[in-house]
Structures are given as structure tokens and as C-alpha cells.
Amino acid sequence: MKPAPFTYEAAASVRDAVERLSSSASPRILAGGQSLVPMLNLRLAPADALLDISRIPELRAVEERPDAIRYGALITHTAFEDGAVPDGSNGLMRHAAANIAYRAVRTRGTIGGAIALADPAADWITVTIALEAMLHLTSATEKRRISVQDFVRGPYFTALGDDELIEAIEVPKRPDTERWGYSKVVVKTGEYAESMTIALLDKARKFSRVVLGATDGAPIVMAEAAAALLGGADEDAKKAAISSDLMRSKHDFSAAKRILHTTTVLRAMKQSSAA
Ligand SMILES: Cc1cc2nc3c(=O)[nH]c(=O)nc-3n(C[C@H](O)[C@H](O)[C@H](O)COP(=O)(O)OP(=O)(O)OC[C@H]3O[C@@H](n4cnc5c(N)ncnc54)[C@H](O)[C@@H]3O)c2cc1C
Questions:
Q1: Architecture of domain 57-172 in CATH?
Q2: Of the residues 28, 37, 105, 143, which should be mutated to test ligand 1's pocket, given the most ligand atoms within 8 Å of the CB?
Q3: Which listed CATH number (2.60.120.10, 2.60.40.60, 3.30.43.10, 3.40.50.150) goes with 7-52?
Q4: What separation in Å is there between the alpha carbon of 122 and the centre of ligand 1?
Q5: Whose CA is nearest to atom 1 of ligand 1?
Q6: CATH number of 179-274
Q7: How confident is the model at residue 275 (pLDDT cuts 50, 70, 90)?
Q8: Cβ of 5: how many Cβ atoms within 10 Å?
Q9: Residue 23: is its pLDDT beyond 90?
Q10: Ligand 1 atom 14, closest CA
């Protein structure tokens, strides 16, 4: 299929982009185009006007501070995968990026686009929620910061205003005493996750965090599972904690999905506590 007709304009700077976003044309942002273009072709995402932000240099900037790294929204999955940008996640972001889709998609797909879309099965929303990342949003009138956890409200549903764009993603540097576990189940290599979990464990800081993604909704922060991980609970107690988290999430998971999610959570927890 071919897309419905649309107008195309390219922004030269963030200021230029947000001014165009606040105009009556209400253009839709185009970044790497890896999700939006197929959706336009299938006529699943009607857009009368596209605003291409892919040539804005500020959105490719990376700023490393002692406590956090700020990644411009246009940083591609490949840049993380190839180590072309600094990593403060003890290698988790690099590993996660390398497991998104195929290399061709990764060379154009951007972290900002992936988070803005909030596809429930997408990798970055789960990874950045686990890493307690913050988003920098900007419009013609306001700049604001919001955690990715608060930003993602449901499947393809976020706190992004029509006149806003994601300027950057700020990821706190993780202590080197922290260990991570990553488990993703896909039907075929390069496809979206059926279930994925990130587990973080830092025994020195007495910190743990477990986030389950690909739930058909926003990623679930698994508080009881995290407590069980930190407390060194046995497998039965961990399963009970996971079950309780799944129950509290109020998702109506099928029996098969429940088993699948329990499996990725257990695998990620095991990996995080193995090192
Ligand atoms: C075959 C295939 C397999 C894939 N598999 C996976 C996978 O396994 N895991 C995964 O996570 N992803 C997967 N993807 C998606 C891929 O990661 C995309 O790159 C990503 O979802 C969107 O990034 P993009 O830069 O291409 O955004 P675009 O497609 O350009 O835009 C996506 C949406 O985000 C909005 N947007 C983009 N940038 C911004 C911004 N800075 N501020 C505000 N709004 C913005 C757009 O308006 C649009 O609504 C797959 C894609 C394909 C085609």
C-alpha cells in the first residue's frame, strides 16, 4: 500500500521544530522512520503533515556528567550497540540495543523515536524504565523533565503533548557494584519481544529493581520480585512474588503469557545474581 498524501518539512534546529509543532498544521514528527513509515504505508497512522527532525544536530549530542549521561533523542540503536556513545549502564544498554530488530533497522531507528512511540513490546521503554531514566521534553513555551516510567502510560499512549518533542534521554550512571540480568523471548530473531525482563541487583547498595516489558501495556515495575531478589529468596518464593506482582498489575494475562512472563523474570533475576 502507499501512504495517503502528506506535506513534508524538515526542521533545522530544536527551536525551529517546536515552532513548527505549535503551528496549526500540527505536523507529526519523523525521526528514523522505522516505525512511522511502515505505519503510514499501511495507513495505520494518518498524518497530513510530517516534520523531519533527523537533521537537527542538537538532537545527536551526548553529554556525559559525573552522575548521568544525556543522550540526544536521535542517537541510533547502532550507536549504542557499537559503543559509539558512552555507556553508564555497565553494558546493559549496549546489549539491549544489539538485540533490537535487525541491523538495518538499528542503523536508522532512534532511542527517542522508540520511547515516543511506546510500542508495548519495544525494548527501550523497558530498559530505560529499569535504569530510572528521565526524558527532557520541549515545546515552544516550556521545557520539562519526566521519568520514562511516568511518561509511558499504556500501549502507544504517553504523556507527550502534541506540541512537544523528546529532546534527550538522561540515564543515571549505575554504580559498578550493580549487576544486570536481561531476558527477552522472541518468536524469531529480530522480532518484537513476547516477553522481556530487566533485573538490576546491587548487594553493596541493597538495591534491586525488576521491570517486565512486552505486557501489552506499559512495562510493569515488579516490586515484590525485586524484594525477593534482594532478599535472596528461593525459587518458590520468587515465583510467588512474581505472581503477586502480575496479579497487582491488573492485566488479564492468559495462562501461557503468565508462564512466559514468569520465565523471563526468573531468568533475568538469576542472571543478575550470578555475577
Ligand atoms: C522490522 C522491524 C522490527 C523491529 N523490531 C523491534 C524490536 O525488536 N524492538 C524494538 O524496540 N523496536 C523494534 N522496531 C522499531 C524500531 O526500534 C524503531 O526504530 C523505533 O520504534 C522508532 O524509532 P524511529 O526513530 O524510527 O522513529 P519514527 O518511526 O520516525 O517515529 C516513531 C514515532 O515516534 C515519534 N517520534 C520520533 N522521534 C520523536 C521525538 N524525538 N520526540 C517526539 N516524538 C518522536 C514519531 O512521531 C512517531 O509517532 C522494529 C522496527 C521494524 C521496522
A1: 2-Layer Sandwich (3.30)
A2: 105
A3: 3.30.43.10
A4: 9
A5: 101
A6: 3.30.390.50
A7: low
A8: 6
A9: no
A10: 101
Q: Provide the whole-model pTM.
A: 0.97
Q: Cα(210) to centroid of ligand 1, in Å?
A: 24
Q: What would the pLDDT profile of 121-137 be if each residue is shown by its tens digit?
A: 999 999 999 999 999 99
* Cβ contact 198:208 at 8 Å: no
Of ligand 1's listed atoms, the one at least distance from the Cα of 112 is 41
Q: What amino acid is encoded at 140 in this protein?
A: A
Q: Are 7-52 and 179-274 equal in CATH topology?
A: no
- What number is the average pLDDT over the span 146-152? 98
DSSP annotation of 175 reads: P
Per domain, the residue ranges of the chain are 7-52, 57-172, 179-274
Question: H-type helices in the chain, by residue range?
Answer: 14-21, 36-41, 77-81, 92-98, 103-108, 111-117, 123-130, 148-151, 223-230, 235-248, 255-274
Pocket test for ligand 1, best of 22, 29, 137 (most atoms within 8 A of CB): 29
